[in-house]
Design a protein that fits this description.
41% of the residues lie in helices and 13% in strands. It is α/β, with parallel strands linked by helices. It has one domain: Alpha-Beta Barrel (TIM Barrel). Helix 1 packs across helix 2, helix 3 runs parallel beside helix 4 and helix 8 crosses helix 9. It binds ligand 8Y4.
Length: 275
Amino acid sequence: MTAGRCPEWRRAGRPWVMGILNATPDSFSDGGRFNSVERAVDAAAAMLDAGADLIDVGGESTRPGATPVSQQEELDRVVPVIEALAERFDCPLSVDTSAPAVMSQAVDAGACLINDVRALTRPGAVEAAVASGASVCVMHMRGEPGDMAERTGYQDVVAEVIDFLAERLRSLEAAGLPLDRTLVDPGFGFAKTFEQNFALLRRLEEFSCLDAPVLVGMSRKRMIGEATGQPVDRRATGSAAAALLAAERGAAVLRVHDVEATRDALAVWSATCPA
Ligand code: 8Y4
């Protein structure tokens, strides 16, 4: 299997901006596959125009209450989109999935990064990821999107999330995934309260002890809504502020919906950094 090339995640200057692309059928689509692939390509083009460095393609919603998607449906949604993006653009592509078959086929189609909110815990996921040659982002969560809300008991959320990720990195390394192919993610909003999410953001620098690039995803999430009082469609400004604070605290990759707002915030930050 051949993975598209991933960038060197750690670099001087600003973090990489990962644009979120939902490869889920939308209500305007006529249901035809070609139509939804074309729409996805257009959405990716718009994010790249706005300054995205890479695109994260997902076909399964991890929102609480979302209906689970069959593996075949996920493959049908994600693989044609990644193929089309790999043909059209030369940016790195990421696949947001927990399913081993989707990992393998998405990497074959051109993805260089596997973004798994379940940290390769599904049977066969570690093997598929190792064999793919792609990089992997391992994220902290507890339970499943349906029961996460009740699983927020921590003594020290930052220490416990770091411990979980450290343990995951060790076992992935033992399974044949070298450290230079892994990123870590605190999993904002996944089984965390408002205070816990903001403790993770405030103390993000502590994640540098893991020696892996840190990816963060806070874009438009409830933590932003709770801080700003804004509904989901008016959280771009709050999300850009959160992304900037993460950048300041060492984040290597920012997973965002609002690429232009994020790039503008980073441009202002960069101007304060001596060249
Ligand atoms: C509005 C829009 C409200 C989106 C909530 C959401 C992460 C992730 C997700 C993350 C990594 C989401 C796939 C949840 N979050 N991957 N994925 N890190 N690595 N919710 O934080 O965006 S989906």
